[in-house]
Amino acid sequence: MWLVCSDNQTLIRAISGETQAKEIIGIVKDIRSISSEFATVSFSFFPRSANVVADDLAKRTFQTSLLIVT
Fold first, then answer.
1. Range of the structural domain that residue 33 is part of
2. 29 within a domain of the structure (yes/no)
3. What is the structure's pLDDT at 24?
4. Among candidates 8, 1, 6, 18, which has minimal Cα distance to 43?
5. 38 part of a folded domain
6. CA 65, CA 42: separation in Å to the nearest integer?
7. Rounded to an integer, what distance in angstroms lies between the CA atom of residue 10 and that of residue 24?
8. From CA 16, how far away is CA 46, in angstroms rounded?
């Protein structure tokens, strides 16, 4: 099972089908298409303030062009 967490609540709600956001409809379609390749994928909202370590790592990755694969 894959768990995908995001601090973008609008995106998570759109992926889950709770709401429609016209400005990200293409992204949502791509995410649904890619996630259909996995047996089980769950999307969850996770506030940025609750995940300071991951947020800092993401910022550093963009600043240094570092690629981290886990």
1. 2-64
2. yes
3. 94
4. 6
5. yes
6. 28
7. 9
8. 14
Per the domain annotation, does 54 fall within a domain?
Answer: yes
Q: What are phi and psi of 41, to 5 degrees?
A: -135, 135
CATH number for the domain harbouring residue 58 = 3.30.420.10
Q: Distance between CA atoms of 8 and 29, rounded to whole angstroms?
A: 16
Residue 36 is assigned to a structural domain of this protein: yes
Cα four-point dihedral sign 19, 24, 27, 29? positive
CA dihedral of residues 69, 64, 46, 24 (deg, nearest 10): -90
d(C-alpha 5, C-alpha 44), whole Å: 5
Q: What's the pLDDT at 41?
A: 94
Pairing mode of beta strands 41-45, 2-6: parallel
- The pLDDT tens digits of the residues spanning 36-61 come to 999 999 999 988 888 788 778 778 77
